Amino acid sequence: MQRRDFLSTLPIALGVVAARHGFSQLAQSTKSILDYGAKPDGRTLNTGAIQRAIDDVFRSGGGTVIVPQGIFLTGRIELKARVTLNLQSGSTLLGSTSINDYTFPGSNPRHLIFAHDADDVTLTGPGRIDGQGPSFWEPSGRAPSPPEEEWADVASHSLVPKKSGRPSPLLDLSIANG
Question: Confidence class of residue 69 from pLDDT cuts 50, 70 and 90?
Answer without folding.
Answer: very high
